[in-house]
Design goal:
mainly alpha; 0% strand
Length: 404
């Protein structure tokens, strides 16, 4: 892999990962500081709905190109500028005076971010050959998660030292900095042709998928594999802050140190596993590690506020995320038809995000009803359906190289 391609993958991965927490756990931490109820904070999970609905407008990105930078890069640049603008406006909004404006601007960040993901995921599938796909995805995921730690852990520290306004303005600046990755990216217009018509862009990807044997198992797996993770993540920040009493400085410091190392190691370990074993075996191992990592927060709920416990739980969670993400992306991206990369991968990734949005909106009510000591074991149990689907691997219709 050439240095320019490596740099591009890192920059684009960072640009993709930065907005997610800014409309997710970091935004919920801000709303927690504002004194909103757990039920209201949980409902903020619906702000991330565009990540699950992006497949609806993905065909437009497959079919049409903006002038100047090519079909993928043009959309990437436009969406990055839109994200930066929405984050800047969100920074100067006062939630206690205009909560609806916060919701609208957070939705704008989510829409532009989700659209950016369509373009950058399609670009990655087209720019990387099969030999480098696993490694490239691992690098992208590691950079993605580092960005999440910046917009999560570092943002928490900045919010305590300065203010939420300064924090979100800083994140808007980093979003603009991420446009360097778009400028460095190669133009992939010559790799895969665009659909000739919008009708082909809409119907072609779906026809291709529906004609595949066992496609239902693959789509169900995309939904359920990370279900437990998403449920736990939706309430982790209110749990640590309000339920246990950790400060923003403590949470942020842990996330930007040990957690950052863990996610990089997790991504590299996931990439190594994909080169050393079958994809099916890697998904099994990573699935169990993901489910086990959730119990780290259950341990905190049982044993109370101990910083070493926070370090251990956060480290395990990020290690599991890096490992599981590498294996899942390798499965889904390798299942895409290059003629319809943008739409098909958007469908796959939207399905993986669906539980975070649909079930995530109910997590506040679940936490209030169950209590923290029961909530996280329930989240861990939610990982079981995805693992059970792996028992039916032979019915998925994958090729032998996909991993027996």
């Amino acid at each position: 892999m050439k240095p320019r391609q490596l740099t591009t993958l890192i920059l684009l991965g960072f640009a993709s990962g930065l907005p997610l927490f800014l409309t997710g756990s970091t935004l919920k931490a801000w709303m927690t500081d504002e004194g909103l109820s757990l039920a209201t904070i949980g409902l903020f999970s619906f702000v991330t709905l565009p990540y699950s609905l992006k497949v609806l407008w993905a065909p437009f990105l497959d079919r049409f190109a903006l002038p100047g930078l090519g079909r993928r890069r043009g959309w990437m640049l436009l969406m990055q500028l839109g994200m930066a603008l929405a984050l800047g406006l969100l920074a100067v909004t006062q939630p206690n005076l205009d909560l609806m404006r916060v919701v609208i601007l957070a939705l704008a960040v989510a829409v532009t971010s989700a659209t950016f993901d369509i373009a950058v995921d399609a670009w990655r599938a087209e720019a990387l050959d099969q030999k480098h796909l696993g490694l490239g995805n691992s690098i992208h995921i590691a950079a993605y998660r580092v960005a999440m730690l910046v917009s999560g852990g570092l943002a928490m520290i900045l919010a305590q030292v300065f203010s939420w306004r300064a924090t979100y303005l800083g994140m808007a600046g980093l979003t603009l900095l991420g446009t360097l990755g778009t400028w460095l990216a190669m133009n992939t217009d010559g790799v895969a042709r665009a659909p000739r018509t919008l009708q082909e862009a809409v119907s072609g990807p779906l026809k291709d998928l529906l004609q595949r044997k066992g496609i239902g198992y693959l789509l169900a797996f995309a939904v359920f594999y990370k279900l437990g993770d998403w449920l736990a993540e939706a309430m982790t920040m209110p749990f640590l802050m309000r339920g246990i009493g950790f400060t923003k400085m403590q949470i942020g410091t842990v996330q930007k140190t040990t957690a950052m190392v863990a996610i990089i190691l997790g991504g590299l370990l996931g990439g190594w596993m994909l080169m050393r074993m079958s994809l099916r075996k890697a998904l099994w191992i990573c699935g169990f590690v993901q489910a086990g990592s959730i119990l780290g927060f259950w341990a905190i709920s049982m044993l109370g506020r101990h910083l070493p416990l926070l370090v251990a739980a956060n480290t395990l969670e990020n290690l599991a995320y890096g490992m599981g993400g590498s294996a899942l992306v390798a499965l889904l991206m390798g299942s895409c038809n290059r003629s319809y990369t943008g739409t098909q991968y958007a469908l796959f990734s939207a399905l993986t995000a669906l539980p975070r949005t649909v079930f995530g909106g109910l997590t506040g009510f679940m936490a209030e009803s169950y209590g923290w000591k029961l909530y996280f074991p329930v989240c861990a149990a939610a990982a079981i359906p995805g693992l059970l689907l792996l028992l039916l691997w032979d019915r998925w219709g994958l090729t032998e190289t996909d991993g027996a």
